[in-house]
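Model it.
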Amino acid sequence: MQKKISENPLKNARDSAPDFARLAGAIKAWGRELGFQEIRIADANADMSQSEYGLEQWLNKGYQGEMDYMAKHGTRRTRPAELIPGTLRIISVCMNYMPVAKDSWQVIGNGDKAFVSRYALGRDYHKVLRTRLQKLADRIAAEVEHSNYRVFTDSAPVMEVEWAQKSGVGWRGKHTLLISREAGSMFFLGEIYTDTPVTVDSPIGNYCGSCTRCIDICPTHAIVAPYRLDARRCISYLTIEHKGSIPEALRPLIGNRVYGCDDCQLICPWNKFAVKTVEADFAVRNGLDDISLVELFSWNKEEFDTRLAGSPIRRIGHEQWLRNLAVGLGNAPTSPAVVDALQGRRDDVSSLVREHVRWALQNHNKRRV
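Modeled.
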């Protein structure tokens, strides 16, 4: 059970008079013992005015698409004490996720294969990070009497990239993801909000320079400007967050990317420093790093639920999964196996699936003419 942060945190912390610089060092050591590759600390009262303005402008343009939750919480995203009263520090942690897997570009270049974003090849990271974060927070609470906290892994309105940037984990790349000089961008972020005023770290500079490779390679031109993403065009959004029909104009651009998209990360020069994960939970499951679209399309709901139990993919549901696969099959090279797979779901119980199957079959019929 997580504790509610007290209204008078400084009094509690001062009563036990801990050495906050020493405690900051200990927190980092404990975090590394728990499997986090980086642990850094930001001041919860840091100036976030630019972030607030940027978020407001992003929302005003409708770039959030159907992600209504991005607009619901107002300044609680940028003012931690409004979300959790008494918050003084934000501890950001990183965990590498890049598994040993089939080369991504080879899979993307093979139209018969299904490309799954490399973060989703294993177990759902929310569960892994949250468990470790809770252990780290409990360790801090055991060290400082009356210390209070709350842990987050995509579970509340927290601007995780901004806070990680404030703490010096890395900098926001032009694709909007956080980049580290030591680990590229292929890592997960998690946070602990705490009322214990441990010593903070300093931010670092931005090292993207004049590079625009992530912008140039985006298949759907979703990165509309440096540091500005129109989620409505982003393949990750379209295949995961978007629940309805995928706009027809964007379907051919999706290619065989059936769950997420890594192109902007794969092309980033800093990811030559990306580190392979040592976490067994993030290892490839079900051969998802190099599997055919036809095979995945053959899974019924029971197989989908069973095979993908504990996977982040399971959260989108079987219907949306089939929708994504139908688009991939529509973009695949025409073959009897591909056409037969699509024909087999022409009368699917889901109107959403039927619509995308019809589009896919029309694509193959056009090629035959």
